[in-house]
Amino acid sequence: MAFDASTLDAILNNAVAEGHVPGLAAVVVDRDGTLYSGAAGSVRAGGEAVSASTMFRYASCTKAIASVAALQLIEQGKLSLDDEVSALLPEFAKLQVLDGFDGDQPILRPPARSPLVRELLTHSSGLTYFFTNAAMAQFHAATGAPDILTGQKAALTDVPLARDPGQIWDYGTNTDWLGLLVEQVSGQSFDAYLDEHVLGPLGMTDVTFSPTPEQRDRLMPVHARTPDGGLAETPLELAENPEYFSGGHGLYGTAEAYGRFLRAMLRGGELDGNRILQQETVELAFSDQLRGVPMPTDGIVSTVPELTNDVPPFPFAESWGLGFHLVLEDVPGARRAGTGDWAGIFNLYYWIDRSTGVGGMILTQVLPFFDAGVVTTSMGLEAAVYAELGIA
């Protein structure tokens, strides 16, 4: 169908004019192609305009792609959802549970059991992030353990679980460990595996863990919200030469490249004749896999306000599939029940509505996460798409 590009262009242009972002890109796709590709604003103040070739840090939008890699190995029988992670990764078997503090000294104990592969995919393993868990933030402060932004592998191997597996959904480093698991099982480095089995087959040629100098020239800098509500470039940067390829946040790419991934998921795991997952596996990934493990009632509470705002509880029924957050009921004038979605800390947001057959993404590079202006822009873009589709 033909989209009214002017409506969506106006939403992006307004986000720049209102000072929500320095610049941004968006893509909307269906099973047959790209319905909309647009951009507004500048890569940096006074710089070149954002375009289809602008590179973005995908941040946690990497997780969906990394999860597909693990699902491929499950399809092949090389991995099982119910495998114990500790039995496959000796490094993981050393992890303890943080059980409080004696003064500044962390109290650690063995976990009640090993997390399962499915619990990595559903964020119910007991792992967490230092910027969303107060106890883990205290652990890093007390021990000096590196955090994931450093790119050091010790940010995984020297950091404990926050609780025993299977107790509650808790956002964390699960997909980083999933990437290490893919390496272990496949015998390939994670970047080589993704290139051969996911990115290459989908034609996502401008997506990488290791940007070339030419790609870095096209990379939008990270901007941070200032006390007066403005934006300024920040020196915060992901490690250029990380010790491991992060399945949780490490990919860089363009809007249109991620649009190809969205289309493959809408098409049941196939794009342009190249199949990366079987239809049945995609159905499984987009089905409730928490098995009664609760989502937190207070949303995501920030412990590092420079990185993320508090994220309130989702106002509709929700759960988690294998690598995707799930909406379990129709959102009026927007995504339908069964939609998978997620986001990236630099205020990137995507959705994959397999019921309607449409998906989209908005990309910028702004901190902290869940910026009110960017969230409003993302919701406005989605609402405009469904208005075009005639869905109330």
Automatic annotation (TrEMBL):
Top-level taxon of origin: Bacteria
UniProt keyword Hydrolase, yes or no: yes
Keyword Amino-acid biosynthesis belongs to the record: no
Keywords annotated in UniProt: Hydrolase
Listed GO MF terms: hydrolase activity
Residues covered by the Beta-lactamase-related domain: 8-369
Entry protein name: Serine hydrolase domain-containing protein
Organism for this UniProt entry: Sporichthya brevicatena
